[in-house]
Amino acid sequence: MLLVTLTYLKPLHEIDALMDAHVAFLETQFAKGTFVAAGRQLPREGGIILARRLTKPALTALMQQDPFVTAGAASFVVTEFRTSLHHADFKAVADAGTLTVGTRA
User: How big is the CA angle at 50 (ends 52 and 103), to the nearest 5 degrees?
Assistant: First the structure.
């Protein structure tokens, strides 16, 4: 599993001008099953993307194509982690071999 943390580098009016292109980028990756969830940070200083099915280097290369990044409006950090426990609703996207909460003996 991978977590992308986007940090805005430009004012929000410039971020908003790129939003349609950014959302199209996200939707393409959701359709491929690469992205699991995405949304704004609160306060609105950037965004978070939860991803899977890629290596960290592959996701880093993919994120270079995000319109926010290509326009210099945001930077990003990719953090790789392995799920250990997950809620049953999350089972379809959790790492293989991890435990659903409530199933440990």
Answer: 75
Q: How far apart are CA 55 and CA 80, in angstroms?
A: 8
DSSP character string of 50-87: EE-SS-HHHHHHHHTTSHHHHTTSEEEEEEE---SEE-
Q: Which comes out higher in pLDDT, residue 92 or 58?
A: 58
Of 68, 70, 64, nearest in space to 17 by CA: 68
pTM for the structure as a whole: 0.91
What is the DSSP-derived secondary structure letter of residue 97? T
φ, ψ of residue 61 to 5 degrees: the values are -65, -40
pLDDT of residue 4: 98
pLDDT tens digits along 51-63: 999 999 999 999 9
Name the CATH topology of 2-100.
Answer: Alpha-Beta Plaits (3.30.70)
